[in-house]
Amino acid sequence: MKFISLFAGVGGFDLGMTRAGHECVAMVEYDKAAAGVLAHRFPGVPLFCDVRNVSADDLPDADFLTYGFPCQDLSRAGKRKGLDGDRSGLFFEATRIIRGLRKRGLQFALAENVAGLLSADNGGALARCVRELLDCGARDVGWRTLDSQWFRVAQRRRRVFLVADFAGERCDEILALTESLRGHPAPSRGAGERVAPTVTDGAPFSRTGNERAECEALICRAGVAANAETLVDQSPTLISHRSQSGPLIFQPRIGRNGRGYAAPGEPEPALNGADAGATSDMRQCVAFSCKDHGADVGTVSPTLRAMNHSHSHQNGGGQVAVAFGHQSSASQGASVSEHISPCLDNSKLPAVAIERAPVRRLTPTECERLQGFPDDWTAERCQLTSDGNRWIAGDVEPQSDSARYKQMGNAVTVTVAEWIGQKIQGAMQ
Q1: 3-state secondary structure of 146
Q2: CATH level 3 topology of 2-179+363-428
Q3: CA distances, 293 to each of 217, 310, 320, 335 (Å)
Q4: Residues recognised as catalytic
């Protein structure tokens, strides 16, 4: 089938539909940098500038149309002007073109936008879209929220896809996730209203018949620490429990030597909560230090406060060091050095201290992979000049990383578009 792409971006819809066997016959993209990528990747396809200046007469005949219209006025992060906003309101420019193409055999129109479409305009934005498409002559309109993580990419990206069928009633075939339901599905249950469980409630701790722990990264216990010696042959990263003095602490697995650090040949524990030789009276590692030198650890457990303090604060009969220090007594004091601000303090224990280890940002190529594009899809673009409302391609040039990040953030996930394209093909057949 032949299709036209409005608000084409860098071709997420177009690449996915092409992989599904369809042919793109015209594109419209206002952003010059993104349009340059389209001109480079889809040479020979007519490329228009401004959707507001495009009429149906400017476009060739097509079987369906895709339009990922702007989301800024619908997103929960914006001012939420809804379909009355200058950018998201361009939806009505798409329906203007749809009206003209429908008279020439257009069968489907496929839109994509953020999940905020469902709640914008006080919940009325989606209804306005449906009414507008019905006014355009659609015989069937359907929508579904699809998450990219279920389409072979490693990211969560929920988007609403809206299908209008002008030649039949096939939206359910296109958007159905399965062909049928097997067996007798259990009846749905009402949404719960209780508070989500906290770390003090504990997490499920399952064991097999041979008393070995299942693969659990974090085993939570309230009150008394779990018996770590039974986990010698396992690899739980941490066993957490709340000490009587309040702060959340980590206790590692115990080595075969009975001490809190690994014997020679054993894996080094990630965090050690015991001094050498200590058994029942273990020196506990403070996992979550708190503001005011730890004065509020009895009631607050913030995720991490890596403050640089050179002393500890008296609390509950013991001292609590800041930023993953040790809970120490008066005779055994240990606090984070005043010269560094590490996440872990291993001044007393054989734990691994991590200093200034930032999480790096994703590369542009990794962002392309997360959206289902081939590597370096946006690395180059054509230089463009405008001729009326048409883009004219020139020489190919490298593209900045900042432009590539922006383009991937705005793109339609290719694998989702490909899946819908296959469903459209099946509905036609």
Answers
A1: strand
A2: Rossmann fold (3.40.50)
A3: 29, 10, 8, 11
A4: 71
Q: Residues near 304 by Cβ (< 8 Å), separated by ≥ 6?
A: 288, 289, 323, 343
Over residues 113-165, the pLDDT tens digits come to 999 999 999 999 999 999 999 999 999 999 999 999 999 999 999 999 999 99
Torsion-angle region of 157 (φ positive above 0: left; ψ -120 to 50: alpha; else: beta): beta
Six token digits for residue 301: 């457990």
Contact call for residues 152 and 415 (beta carbons, < 8 A)? yes
Strand (E) or helix (H) holding 160: strand 158-165
Which residue is associated with the tokens 């180059």?
Answer: 380
Q: What is the pLDDT of residues 8-45, one digit of tens each?
A: 999 999 999 999 999 999 999 999 999 999 999 999 99
> 370: which residues sit within 8 A by CB, 6+ positions away?
153, 154, 155, 362, 408
- Cβ atoms 324, 286 nearer than 8 A: yes
Phi-psi region of 277 (alpha: psi -120 to 50; beta: other; left: phi over 0): left
Work out the angle between the directed axes of helices 401-410 and 32-41 (0-180°, nearest 10): 80
Instruction: Name the pairing type of β-strands 2-6 and 23-28.
Output: parallel
Q: Which two tokens stand for residue 419?
A: 């899946």
User: What distance in Å separates the CA atoms of residue 294 and residue 306, rounded to the nearest whole number?
Assistant: 11
pTM of the full predicted structure? 0.62
* Total H helices, total E strands in the chain: 10, 16
